[in-house]
Write a structure and sequence with these properties.
With about 120 residues, the chain is of the alpha/beta class. The protein has one domain (about 1-120). Helices cover about 45% and strands about 15% of the residues. It is built from five helices and four strands, in the order E-E-H-E-H-H-H-E-H. It has a four-stranded parallel sheet with strand order 1-4-2-3. Helix 2 packs antiparallel against helix 3 (about 60-75) and helix 3 crosses helix 5 (about 105-120). The chain is globular.
Length: about 120
Amino acid sequence: MIRIKRAYDPPAPGDGKRFLVDRLWPRGIGKEALKVDGWTKEAAPSDGLRRWYGHDPSRWEEFRRRYREELEANRAAWEPLLEAARSGDLTLVYSARDEERNNAAVLQEHLERALDSLQPQLSP
């Protein structure tokens, strides 16, 4: 299972492997408090895309489209997350205030699609 969780929410035993998926470290949180297994900043949106989006809800759909393009062009950045998800529970940690429209939500969808494509196809 792949979950997303704000960096400001406490870690939980059911989180499994935890990876920070933001390009910038969350303000006011020390490394010990965040308790992440890795920081995949290269899997985060580019600085240009992040700044363009600015968490403006009217730009959400276009942000999703552009970010998915960036992910497709850089599989090596998110491959470790895919491998972690294949071996157990995975939590993508992000710092945005918006719990629905953030890069972790897009990355979660992307990883779930990638996992589905790896599953053997069942014949009827």
